[in-house]
Structure to design on (353 residues):
């Protein structure tokens, strides 16, 4: 499947902008080709643009693509469930040739618009939509969170670590599955019995806040986990995860593993002392790759799957908490990374892409 090439390839850079939902009407469908064929529209989920997570990372990737290719990028920000479908419609009405949607909440609206507009290219982040003109952008985060789980078990002083999610959804539980298995691998290798609170992989059930925005819920749940002995916490909950960093900072002796982006760079500087690492998704590179594919007429619906092998997932540096990680533990983690890349060690999850 191909789409019409954008005109203006290599044109003068158009400044990126953010279109808040409902703040401005969509351009008329009869607008000029110059305005409509050199742009991309991104629609966030209800977590908003500055979610320190995949909305923000996707937007940063489109800004990178804007700088590299000279296309205009705008983000349409959803503030609630009722915004989702209208915002995808607004993105389509803009006349742009590529529409990027972020998160499982936008799957239905993306499929509806993709079927109604087969000449357009769509990409959806962190979700799979099956249509000839939709490219899923997904990440096998279990591979990287396996390393994070092994790390957590290796640095824990209490022998108890924890994880929680914003909702029981495959893109969330994929992290949690890998984390639990990484802890189990550490126990197997070292004869230890580090426990994981917050997730039962066999039952595919655990601790969830029920949303991705209420930081207070994340703090309350994290405090409960700390009260049960957890000294390393992996929140998979977007902005809600900031509650875990607050709780860790206040309680002391607790560290946090962030997800999606490097929390050391994306969160407030005050939280740096408690950030052990982050489970990264290289969403930025995927966005640049997809924009380039549309431009050179090679866009297809084949999924982009980020792995340790292609650099789509990884764990971040240990930054200020590097002294907690011994050279031996770091070497073990690197060996596990290479085993996963080679296929000698397979990290499994029912939520794997």
């Amino acid at each position: 499947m191909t789409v019409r090439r954008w005109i203006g390839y290599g044109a003068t850079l158009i400044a990126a902008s953010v279109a808040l939902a409902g703040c401005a009407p969509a351009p008329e469908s009869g607008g000029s080709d110059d305005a409509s064929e050199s742009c991309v529209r991104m629609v966030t989920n209800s977590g908003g643009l500055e979610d320190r997570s995949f909305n923000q990372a996707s937007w940063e990737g489109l800004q990178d693509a804007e700088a590299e290719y000279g296309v205009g990028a705008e983000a349409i920000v959803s503030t609630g469930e009722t915004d989702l479908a209208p915002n995808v419609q607004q993105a389509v009405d803009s006349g742009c040739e590529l529409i990027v949607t972020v998160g499982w909440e936008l799957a239905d609206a993306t499929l509806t618009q993709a079927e109604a507009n087969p000449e357009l290219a769509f990409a959806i982040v962190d979700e799979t939509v099956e249509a000839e003109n939709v490219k899923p952008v997904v990440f096998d985060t279990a591979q990287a969170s396996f390393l994070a789980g092994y790390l957590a078990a290796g640095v824990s002083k209490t022998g108890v670590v924890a994880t929680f999610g914003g909702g029981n959804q495959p893109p969330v539980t994929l992290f949690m599955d890998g984390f639990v298995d990484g802890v189990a691998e550490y126990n197997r290798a070292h004869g230890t019995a580090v426990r994981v609170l917050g997730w039962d992989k066999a039952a595919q059930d655990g601790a969830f806040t029920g949303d991705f925005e209420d930081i207070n819920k994340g703090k309350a749940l994290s405090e409960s986990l700390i009260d049960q002995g957890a000294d390393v916490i992996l929140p998979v909950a977007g902005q809600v995860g900031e509650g875990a960093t607050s709780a860790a900072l206040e309680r002391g002796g607790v560290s946090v593993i962030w997800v999606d982006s490097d929390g050391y760079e994306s969160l407030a500087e005050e939280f740096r002392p408690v950030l052990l690492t982050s489970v990264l998704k290289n969403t930025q590179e995927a966005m640049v790759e997809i924009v380039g594919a549309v431009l050179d007429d090679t866009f297809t619906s084949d999924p982009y799957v980020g792995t340790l092998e292609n650099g789509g997932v990884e764990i971040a540096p240990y930054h200020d908490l590097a002294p907690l990680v011994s050279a031996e533990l770091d070497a073990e983690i690197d060996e596990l990374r290479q085993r996963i890349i080679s296929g000698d060690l397979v990290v499994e999850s029912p939520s794997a892409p």
